[in-house]
Design brief:
This protein has about 60 residues and is an all-alpha fold. The protein has 4 helices and no strands.
Length: about 60
């Protein structure tokens, strides 16, 4: 399954458990937060001030796992 910015962080971690390190490197501690279960990657990134380009790069890195 392809990773998208519209997936919840919980869904991403279920597919790619090693994604936690990448998410943390972007300041997304949502992996250990209740919001990670319901919030999308895009929402989490927006909440942490990431630009659209940073979100695209993050998704690409997650896909490489």
């Amino acid at each position: 399954m392809k990773i998208t910015k519209n997936m919840t962080i919980k869904e991403i971690l279920k597919l790619k458990p090693k994604a936690c390190n990448i998410l943390m490197s972007y300041g997304l501690k949502c992996a250990h937060c209740e919001l990670g279960a319901v919030g999308t990657l895009k929402e989490g990134c927006r909440g942490h001030g990431l630009s659209e380009n940073e979100v695209i790069t993050l998704v690409e890195k997650l896909e490489e796992l």
